[in-house]
Amino acid sequence: MAKPLRTDADLFAAALFQMQVSVIQRTADDIYVEEDKGIIEKITPISVKLNGTYFVRSESEFYVK
Prior knowledge:
4-stranded antiparallel beta sheet; 14% helix
């Protein structure tokens, strides 16, 4: 089962332990789609960077398996 990363501490722990993180976003049709998967490279109050791409935290959900 996938564990959601909701807090700063969750995201920092996943980055520190180099865990594989999935990024989920909703489409315009309200369908959840996995946008990317990888190791967290950078965390800011606004975004999380994976594989060279920044994902806006308020528009994305992050999970580890």
